[in-house]
Specification:
Length: 217
């Protein structure tokens, strides 16, 4: 199957079977989403959603979080992955938001990436969800699923995968495609023991058919 046709059929399946797809992180405003996405790196959304209610109650704004110490934040996020570095990044992020951006989450990828602990993936998520800009964030799920489906071929980095995906996926679908691939990777095309027998995309997938796709990595 030609690559353009593969993308077309994959998108058709997702649009029919997952017409609504959105983040599973809980948040009430752009600042809370930024904190939650930063915490979600190498950590499950379920775990993050257990941590954030108390964290948001104690630090409801960038100005208040900016006054905290990393040690104080560490005590509240210790059950997530890499709490030491994340606590430092969260405080640093809040201080820069307060001092440089007037306490408001910026709406550009370049500005967001100036914040401590914010990389391209996190910036893409924020501009996509909060500001409704076309962006396709590539996390571990997106990277894995796109490789197994051969939507991406021999992608060495998340940025390489992002470039391949955005070349073939229509711009107006970039944001929802991010959620399609994440949710599919989280619940069906899992890293270990993927549920290929239950997958609606198995007829398109070389991995499911036992062939060796040009995997990412």
């Amino acid at each position: 199957m030609r690559r353009k046709q593969l993308f077309k059929q994959t998108i058709q399946w997702f649009r029919a079977n997952m017409p609504e797809a959105e983040t599973e992180l809980h948040y009430g405003n752009p600042f809370e989403l930024l904190v939650a996405v930063m915490l979600s790196a190498q950590c499950t959304d379920k775990r993050v959603n257990m941590i954030t209610p108390a964290l948001f109650e104690k630090y409801p704004s960038p100005e208040i979080l900016a006054e905290a110490t990393p040690e104080e934040v560490f005590e509240m996020i210790g059950s997530c992955s890499y709490p030491n570095s994340k606590s430092k990044h969260l405080v640093g992020m809040a201080r820069m938001l307060t001092e440089k951006f007037g306490g408001r989450v910026p709406d550009s990828i370049d500005d967001l990436r100036q914040l401590p602990g914010v990389g391209r993936k996190t910036a893409n998520v924020i501009v996509s969800i909060v500001f409704k800009q076309p962006a396709l964030a590539v996390d571990t799920h997106v990277f894995r699923v796109s490789g197994r489906l051969c939507l991406t071929v021999n992608a060495k980095t998340p940025l390489d995968a992002e470039r391949q995906l955005t070349e073939y996926i229509p711009r107006h679908l970039w944001s929802i495609a991010h959620h399609w691939l994440i949710l599919h990777g989280r619940y069906v095309c899992t890293a270990r023991n993927p549920k290929c027998s239950e997958c609606g995309l198995k007829r398109l997938c070389r991995y499911a058919s036992g062939q060796t796709p040009a995997m990412n990595g």
